[in-house]
Amino acid sequence: MTTKAKKFSLFSDRQFYRSLFALAVPIMFQNLINSFVNIIDTVMIGRLGTAAIAAVGLGNQVFFLFTMVLFGICSGGSIFTAQYWGKKDIQGIRKNTGLCLFLNMAIALIFTILVLTVPDRIIGFYSQDLEVIRIGSMYLKTLAPVYVPFGISFVFIITLRSIERVRLAMVSTLIALSLNMGLNWIFIFGAGPVPAMGVKGAAIATVIARIVEMLILVTGSYRRKYQMAGTLREYTGFSLTFVSRFFIISGPVIFNELIWALGITVQNIIFARTGTDAIAAFNITNTFSQLTWVVFIGLGSGVAVLIGKKIGEGAEDTARDYAKRIVIFATILAAVIAAILYPFSMLLPFIFNVNLRVMEYVSIMFIILCCSYPFRAFNMNLIVGVCRAGGDTIFCVLFEVFIMWGYSLPLGAMMAFIVHAPVWLIYLCLCSEDVFKMILGLWRLKSGRWLRTVV
């Protein structure tokens, strides 16, 4: 096949791209707001020094772990929601929403209890720096009230995406995180009668913003009478058979996200135990990476809805065509974005109040990150956008466990604690897993065994 034919094949289905971007762009914008506010948070807290930015970064790892568990539940549930949406089964959507709400609330209560009772042990698990532990513990305890409202919001956001109602989620995030950014400035540095509260102020601002987000999502969904806005009876209408089927399909997704999040946690432990400068550099690199990574989160989330809907409609050939298009398109786009992202690293010394060694680490990490982008984009869209939409959840678990836990984490830990390698080489070892994942992912996509009907 000629190059021209390949290009024509990739971009020939204009309706696919119209539908994809109609879903993906609002999701991208929502995640961009999240990432931009995270960057502002990091910059503001970065003015307080290296210990503060390291402590908040580690504290946010706990929230990240919580978010990934929720994402596992809701992402698994979205497999059902998208296929129910294709069948126009409203009662199915509502009972699935109810089960996800119940599970998210249970997880939120567990995390709330943990961060209120043993915050010092949690931060101490990551870092042995006493100042980092002190600041991080205070941050965790202040952030505790955010877990329950965020758990409720997460169900509504993911379900709204699955029924192709993305604007409400985007607006709620825009309002809430704009509020968060404004309150950060007031509470961290002080303004008028409000005293400067530093890291504690950042946590208070986050709690207020997330509660506002939940209220907008819930009231907006019911006022607009969206398909997932049901009664208590409809939310609790799931049977034991449905719960069993839910966990057969969603259980591996939940486990996958938990295993992956724990892997990211181990990465943070590796850098935190290497030194405070190392973990500060790692946090800065990841924060700016999120700014562009929102594009691929949006593409993966959008195409998952399209593929799931086509499977629900019985159009399996179209679903397979969508799968091939998205992984090729995302990989090419990632290479372009990586080339745009790298020059931003040159501006970082003017933004963060950290020492020269931290910035040296960050500059090399940015090069490695940019080189890994095309591989990461392929893998993320294959797993989140293709395999999960097709119900191929067990493969996703094996995909993460064998490569991340069997290869990159042991290699990274060995380089850090036995070889005592430079920080950039540790980071390179951890990023190298994406190449092997892409090879395995190409095989799975070509086999076609990722597609199955679950409703």
Strand and helix layout:
Blueprint: H1 3-11, H2 14-46, H3 50-87, H4 90-117, H5 119-126, H6 130-143, H7 147-162, H8 167-189, H9 199-223, H10 232-235, H11 240-274, H12 276-313, H13 316-341, H14 356-387, H15 393-417, H16 423-431, H17 433-447
Helix pairs in contact: 2-8, 2-12, 3-4, 3-6, 3-7, 3-11, 3-12, 4-7, 5-6, 6-9, 7-9, 8-9, 11-12, 11-15, 12-13, 12-14, 13-14, 14-16, 14-17, 15-16, 15-17
Task: Describe this protein's structure.
With about 450 residues, the protein is mainly alpha-helical. The protein has one domain (about 5-445). It has helices at about 5-10, 15-45, 50-85, 90-115, 120-125, 130-145, 145-160, 165-190, 200-225, 230-235, 240-275, 275-315, 315-340, 355-385, 395-415, 425-430, 435-445. The longest helix has about 40 residues, at about 50-85. The model is unreliable at about 1-10 (pLDDT under 50).
